[in-house]
């Protein structure tokens, strides 16, 4: 496992900052591991967290709360919509070519996909024996 950034570095990374070169492999792992989508959502929530300051404005709490909730829903929606593009750009900033994240994830799934395909062909593509 590559070295992990400390909490302050991770917050900087979550906000879109570039980590030092020694964390390059960790960034690739972060973008391509099994839980990469959950990690993306957690980075998104960090980016949206300053929106909680709207709760401190004057006015009815329910209006402020609904405004923040609407902002969070919209922010997460757009973040999920552009998740692959965002992660590829994050890898690009750390020195990887565009498409490296998707290629690495596909490579990791190749064995599972081959096993599924062979099971499918075994069950459905064999001619019935008479």
List keywords for this structure.
68% helix, single chain, mainly alpha, 130 residues, 6 helices
How would you describe the overall organization of this protein?
This protein has helices spanning 7-14, 24-32, 36-48, 61-81, 83-93, 100-125. The protein is mostly helical and 130 residues long. 9% of the residues are buried.
Number of helices: 6
Beta-strand residue percentage: under 5%
Distance between the termini: 54 Å
Order of helices and strands: HHHHHH
Let me know the average pLDDT. 91
| Portion in helices | 55-70%
Unreliable stretches (pLDDT < 50, length at least 5) are none
What value does the Rg take, in angstroms?
A: 21 Å
What characteristic shape results from the CA principal axes? flat
Topology (SSEs and partners):
Elements: H1 7-14, H2 24-32, H3 36-48, H4 61-81, H5 83-93, H6 100-125
Short description:
With 130 residues, this protein is mostly helical.
